[in-house]
Design a protein that fits this description.
The protein has 2 helices and no strands. With 96 residues, it is an all-alpha fold.
Length: 96
Amino acid sequence: MDQYRKELDSPSWIAFVKITWLVAISVTGCGILYLPVDLWIKGFLGMGLLLCISSSFTVAKTLRDQHEAKKIIKQIDDAQTEQILKDHSRPGPVAV
């Protein structure tokens, strides 16, 4: 059962990922706010930033789902192979 245990990220890695994400969004947002341009241009850039954030989450979720599906399919394939090997390794009736 050890081979099927979940792979978990360390708490420090999770903290790093969250902090860098927040810093990146904050710095980009501040950069947009302090641009010396009209308000409608800032709004346009802000909407672009929100779209990038949204699509990043969508891509990450899709890639994770594909990875999880591959793991499940591999487990099913391994179980089927195991069953086939068990079925063929059983001794058949001995002819006398």
